[in-house]
């Protein structure tokens, strides 16, 4: 779950990190009111869940109220890499002496938490990592020990920051780790972390990804879930509790298991089709789940054929078959359906489906054949 | 022979009294697995279909001599359940539960490595392990696997694990052990752990490895195969067509920052001499060719 910059800053502030005063605005009037309350100069910052806002005109400095009006007018509605700006963050402007980068994320290879700190902040850190890796100070934190004072100091000292920033950076490192660990984040990143001319270390941007699996111990996650940007199809599927990712093609996909669903997309591509979505209905393919899945797929106007790919492990074939027939009674399906049913009690399942087969409901015995058939149907 | 578990393995089920635990525990027992006990802090002295319930793992181990456990506890309790199992004397822990927070997984992985280096954790968020004809721990349907070898299977995805077993059974090829390591960011057992165990197992003559997008586990496995595995390997990597930045169901299955693509993984595996199929069926066919030449 990705947070907007302003949500990330509010998240950081809960752990005591120094962030600038600011307000969220959805209109030019709200932006002006916010700037009046905060006092100019302010920054006008688009809130979108993608990087590179600054280069595309999504972040502007406003010396006075007229400038706030101009920038807010221009930025609201702006298209930033396909994300339309609906909200802007009005924030007290800061004087910057130096810009740093600081982050924590899981190093899956090392199975430890990786901290990265660089005196070369403010730019694309992947480029720094690529061209001058020696400019990134790295630490691996054992989750059992956490970030100790010694390790934090060693990390900061290794990054070559301005000596004036040392104590402030160590304090923020500890707070950032606490937000990452206690807050159950997959990623916390500050870019830039700034040193002001007065010698203060301050958080000027935020990038936070939270682990949805930890929502049970973070009731506050619900507010972030509400602001997730999903396309309409994804929103509908999310509401039904389905694992769905929207794609661009014309073959709707329903499969049980994430691996099989991914594999289904691969096979459709291999036979020349284009999948419209990833959809994993999970282990139990009962009628309710199947009906919900068919509804979501059916509402996608790009879909011209549907491929239902089920491998019954514990799920039994006859239950799947009954689920499909029951779901088809409940939902009027616009596209032809191709079913591949294998695994546990597949014979029984196929026998149940056999009388219902026609040119709108077809069955193939292998995944490849079913992919071919559905790709052909979608191409007509 | 099989790896990790066989007909002598005694298994306790943490969460046997729950809906999932009693269902799959029952199926595992029916399959022939030695399901010797369940645990529940408040239900000691009762039983589930004749399987006795103890208050703690330590008590269950003391009473039964179990060396393996299977966890069906809901996600919030998995961290404590894993540690309770290790402290209670269990040497092989299978955590089926999905949705465990990544920070918990990272924590107990490192905790086990430090305080219980002799304990092997499988999962969380995995289908479990089956040594066909001998022992089935988890949610794999036992009948889709043919017993006897010569192939060992390791897979990150549940349904593709079944698909792999099924492809081999269709071709009348047996399996020594099939390990589903799960699709989470910090799996307790890695591809490499399984590859090393299969390499050391005299009955396993060939290995089938099913990967997916995200992380670098397949690349690390390829490196390991190149240097340490003499047995032939066939493979498939799911997610060739997955768009970057979108999680494909599994917490670990995401292409981010241009890393973790299926193409890069397949390339690394080919470099290591692995026969890579474009889909599970092709990987099965490649394995059949390998087995025919053994």
The rough form of chain B would be described as globular
Instruction: Calculate the mean pLDDT score of chain A and round it.
Output: 92
Poorly predicted runs of chain A are none
Low-pLDDT runs of chain B: none
The biggest sheet of chain A amounts to:
6 strands, antiparallel
**What is the β-strand count of chain A?**
18
Defining traits:
heterodimer, A: 380 residues, alpha+beta, six-stranded antiparallel beta sheet, four-stranded antiparallel beta sheet, 13 helices, 18 strands, 25% strand, B: 294 residues, alpha/beta, seven-stranded mixed beta sheet, 14 strands, 35% helix
Explain what this protein looks like in three dimensions.
Chain A is elongated. Chain A starts with a helix and ends with a helix. In chain A, strands 7, 8, 9, 10, 11 and 12 form a six-stranded antiparallel sheet that branches. In chain A, strands 1-6-2-3 form a four-stranded antiparallel sheet, with helices on one face. Chain A has a four-stranded parallel sheet with strand order 14-16-17-18, with helices on both faces. Chain A is 36% helix and 25% strand. In chain A, β4 and β5 form a beta hairpin. Chain A has 380 residues and is α+β, with helices and mostly antiparallel strands. Chain B is globular. In chain B, β10 (150-155), α5 and β11 form a beta-alpha-beta unit. With 294 residues, chain B is α/β, with parallel strands linked by helices. Chain B is built from nine helices and 14 strands. Helix content of chain B is 35%, strand content 22%. In chain B, α3 packs parallel to α4 (102-115), α5 crosses α9 (280-293) and α6 packs parallel to α7. Classes of the chains: A alpha+beta (380), B alpha/beta (294). The interface between A and B is large, with 50 and 62 residues.
């Amino acid at each position: 779950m990705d947070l907007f910059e302003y949500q990330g800053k509010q998240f950081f502030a809960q752990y005591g990190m120094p962030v600038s005063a600011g307000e969220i605005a959805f209109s030019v009037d709200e932006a002006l009111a916010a700037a009046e309350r905060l006092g100019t100069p302010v920054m006008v910052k688009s809130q979108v869940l993608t990087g590179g806002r600054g280069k595309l005109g999504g972040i502007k400095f406003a010396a006075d109220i007229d400038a706030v009006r101009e920038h807010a007018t221009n930025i609201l509605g702006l298209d930033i890499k396909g994300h339309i700006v609906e909200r802007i963050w009005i924030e007290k402007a800061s004087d910057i002496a130096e810009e740093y980068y600081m982050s924590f994320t899981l190093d899956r290879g090392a199975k430890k938490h990786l901290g990265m700190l660089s005196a070369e902040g403010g730019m694309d850190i992947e480029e720094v990592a690529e061209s001058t890796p020696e400019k990134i100070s790295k630490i691996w934190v054992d989750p059992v020990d956490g970030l100790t004072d010694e390790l934090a100091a060693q990390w900061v000292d290794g990054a070559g920051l301005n000596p004036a920033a040392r104590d402030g950076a160590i304090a923020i490192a500890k707070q950032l780790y606490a937000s990452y660990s206690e807050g159950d984040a997959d990623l916390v990143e500050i870019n830039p972390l700034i040193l002001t001319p007065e010698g203060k270390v301050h958080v000027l941007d935020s990038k936070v990804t939270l682990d949805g699996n930890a929502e049970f111990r973070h009731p506050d996650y619900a507010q972030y879930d509400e602001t997730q940007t999903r396309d309409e199809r994804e929103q509908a599927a999310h509401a039904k509790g389905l694992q769905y990712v929207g794609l661009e093609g014309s073959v709707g996909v329903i499969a049980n298991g994430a691996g099989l669903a991914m594999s289904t997309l691969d096979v459709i591509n291999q036979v020349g089709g284009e999948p419209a979505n990833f959809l994993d209905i999970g282990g139990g393919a009962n009628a309710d789940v199947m009906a919900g899945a068919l509804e979501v797929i059916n509402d996608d106007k790009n879909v011209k054929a549907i491929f239902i790919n089920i491998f019954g492990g514990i799920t039994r074939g006859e239950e799947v078959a009954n689920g499909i027939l029951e779901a088809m009674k409940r939902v009027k399906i616009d596209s032809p359906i191709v079913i591949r049913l294998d695994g546990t009690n597949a014979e029984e399942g196929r026998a149940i489906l056999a009388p219902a087969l026609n040119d709108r409901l077809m069955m193939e015995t292998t995944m490849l054949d079913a992919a071919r058939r559905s790709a052909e149907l979608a191409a007509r | 022979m099989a790896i990790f578990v066989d007909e002598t393995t005694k298994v306790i089920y943490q969460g046997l009294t729950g809906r999932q635990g009693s269902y799959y525990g029952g199926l595992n027992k029916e399959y022939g697995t030695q399901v010797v006990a369940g645990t529940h802090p408040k239900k000691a002295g009762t039983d589930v279909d004749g399987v006795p319930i103890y208050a703690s793992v330590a008590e269950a181990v003391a009473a039964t001599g179990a060396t393996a456990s299977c966890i069906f506890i809901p996600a919030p309790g998995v961290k404590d359940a894993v540690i309770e199992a290790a402290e209670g004397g269990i040497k092989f822990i299978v955590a089926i539960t999905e949705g465990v927070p990544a920070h918990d997984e990272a924590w107990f992985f490192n905790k086990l490595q430090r305080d219980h280096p002799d304990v092997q954790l499988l999962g969380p968020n995995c289908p479990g392990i089956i040594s066909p004809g001998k022992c089935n721990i988890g949610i794999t349907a036992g009948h889709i696997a043919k017993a006897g070898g010569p192939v060992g299977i390791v897979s990150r995805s549940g349904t593709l694990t079944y698909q792999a077993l099924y492809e081999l059974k269709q071709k009348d090829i047996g399996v020594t052990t099939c390990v589903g390591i799960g699709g989470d960011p910090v799996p307790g057992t890695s591809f490499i752990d399984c590859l090393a165990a299969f390499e050391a197992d005299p009955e396993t003559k060939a290995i089938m490895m099913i990967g997916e997008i995200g992380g670098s586990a397949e690349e690390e496995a390829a490196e390991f195969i190149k240097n340490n595995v003499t047995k032939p390997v066939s493979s498939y990597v799911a997610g060739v067509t997955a768009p970057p930045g979108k999680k494909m169901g599994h917490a670990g299955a995401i292409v981010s920052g241009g890393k973790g693509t299926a193409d890069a993984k397949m390339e690394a595996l080919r470099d290591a001499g692995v026969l890579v199929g474009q889909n599970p069926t092709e990987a099965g066919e490649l394995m059949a060719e390998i087995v025919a030449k053994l």
